[in-house]
């Protein structure tokens, strides 16, 4: 008797096979990761060389930036253009798909900045209620 190896859809963004993640969720995680967001937004302005991009983003390790760029390149969002010159020159830019994703992410970032006061107010209210409940 043959056993089906088809994963069962458990939720909208998760597959029921334990290890493997839904492809949509993986891309969402890549695009909205801490460094992925910043890379996409920064590359909206113009192409960057690796060291320029690292300085523009700030506080990202060389290893993390490399991993982030490779992941976004694999997903078709970032284009890596290696020029055969000495010293080597590599430029990173957004693909059309990457530009589309970056515009969406930038919209979320702008909303976050604009609504930060309301978020802070909600946090303070939550913390006060939580502290009151722990004391009472």
Could you write a compact summary of the structure shown?
By secondary structure, this protein is of the alpha+beta class. It has helices at 23-32, 34-45, 50-57, 62-74, 96-114, 116-135; strands at 9-11, 14-15, 48-49, 78-83, 89-94.
Short descriptors:
136 residues; alpha+beta; three-stranded antiparallel beta sheet; 60% helix; disordered N terminus
Q: Your description of this structure?
A:
The chain has 136 residues and is an alpha+beta fold. It has helices at residues 23-32, 34-45, 50-57, 62-74, 96-114, 116-135, and strands at 9-11, 14-15, 48-49, 78-83, 89-94. The protein has a 3-stranded antiparallel beta sheet with strand order 3-5-4. Strands 1-2 form a two-stranded antiparallel ribbon. Strand 4 and strand 5 form a beta hairpin. Helix 2 crosses helix 5 (96-114). The longest helix has 20 residues, at 116-135. It is elongated. The model is unreliable at 1-10 (pLDDT under 50).
Profile the largest sheet: 3 strands, antiparallel
Q: Helicity range of the residues?
A: 55-70%
**Number of strand segments:** 5
Distance between the termini: 61 Å
Q: Strands of the largest sheet, in order across it?
A: 3-5-4
From the helix content, strand content and strand pairing, which structural class follows? alpha+beta
Global morphology: elongated
Order of helices and strands: EEHHEHHEEHH
Quickly count the helices.
6
Query: Unreliable stretches, pLDDT < 50, 5 or more residues?
Result: 1-10
**What is the radius of gyration?**
20 Å
Q: What percentage of amino acids are in beta strands? A: 5-15%
Rounded average pLDDT:
89
């Amino acid at each position: 008797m043959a056993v089906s190896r088809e994963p069962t859809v458990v939720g909208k963004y998760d597959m029921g096979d334990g290890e493997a993640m839904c492809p949509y969720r993986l891309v969402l995680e890549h695009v909205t990761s801490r460094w992925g967001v910043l890379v996409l937004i920064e590359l909206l302005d113009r192409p960057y060389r690796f060291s320029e991009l690292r300085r523009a983003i700030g506080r990202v390790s060389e290893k993390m930036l490399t991993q982030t760029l490779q992941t976004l390149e694999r997903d078709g969002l970032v284009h890596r253009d290696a020029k055969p010159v000495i010293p080597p020159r590599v430029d990173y830019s957004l693909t059309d798909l990457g530009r589309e994703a970056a515009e969406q992410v930038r919209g979320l970032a702008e909303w976050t900045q604009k609504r930060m006061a309301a978020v802070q107010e909600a946090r303070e209210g939550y913390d006060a209620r939580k502290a009151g409940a722990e004391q009472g």
